[in-house]
Amino acid sequence: MATQTIWENYKKTMNPSIRDKMLNEYLPLVRNVAGRMAIGFPKSVELNDLISTGVIGLIEAFNNYDPSRGVKFETYAVPRIRGAILDELRALDWVPRSTRAKSREIEKAMTKLENRLGRSPSERELAKQLNISTDELLSALDDVSSTALLSLDELICREDDNRQVPRIETIQNDNVDNVLNDLERGELRMFLINAISTLSEQERLVVALYYYEELTLKEIGEVMLISESRVSQIHTKAVLRLRALIRERFAL
């Protein structure tokens, strides 16, 4: 990858040939991000399409990157590559309405149980609240897993500070602007940190390994000695609960 000196030289000269060479060196970064995201999406979502969209995010990051701020380009670019892919998926509206409805139903059940129990509900408790069997709940979590991946992958860096904060502003709701005007960025970050701390130990581990250690679901399964499918279910339940907490806290 390009060194700081190469970056500084390019910013001074804006040489097109240097630019093309540098972008080519960063293409594996796009393939890596798209590959990780594709794991949780339906087969109808083509990896090559994600990569093509991710390249747009790479170019945008390349054009806006400021090496003088002391942040590695890879650190700066990954959230923007991911964000470009997510924006395209949202524009395509590829998640079926039935899946969205099922996801919201589970979220609402989690919120009710959370308020009543004062803790994260178990799968058995959640299934009972939904009036379905535990096996049916696990099947439902499998069905909505792609929406969960889409949700927490929106923990991206803001343009002005390169720290990860919730992109609550991406949720379509009239209350969002007021929320962002009333709350400091630090409060948003702290809310998410506190919300994650309320997850079960198993859920916290999956979230940490997937979003911070950047392991795939398969790799997490190998670490935890459980199946990739089970990891996906745990991840989905964790994300739906976090999303429910965010919706409730900010009246979204």
Q: What can you see in these coordinates?
A:
Helices cover 71% and strands 2% of the residues. With 252 residues, it is mostly helical. It folds into two domains: 4-92, Orthogonal Bundle (Rna Polymerase Sigma Factor, Chain: A); 97-250, Arc Repressor Mutant, subunit A, CATH 1.10.10. Strands 1-2 form a two-stranded antiparallel sheet. The protein starts with a helix and ends with a helix.
List the helices and strands and how they pair.
Elements: H1 4-13, H2 16-38, H3 47-64, H4 73-92, H5 97-117, H6 123-129, H7 134-143, H8 145-152, E1 155-157, E2 164-166, H9 176-182, H10 185-197, H11 201-212, H12 217-224, H13 228-250
Antiparallel strand pairs: 1-2
Largest sheet: 2 strands, antiparallel
Query: What is the fold named in CATH at topology level of the largest domain?
Result: Arc Repressor Mutant, subunit A
Helix content: over 70%
Kindly report the name of the CATH homologous superfamily of the largest domain: Winged helix-like DNA-binding domain superfamily/Winged helix DNA-binding domain
- What's the shape? elongated
The CATH architecture classification of the largest domain is Orthogonal Bundle
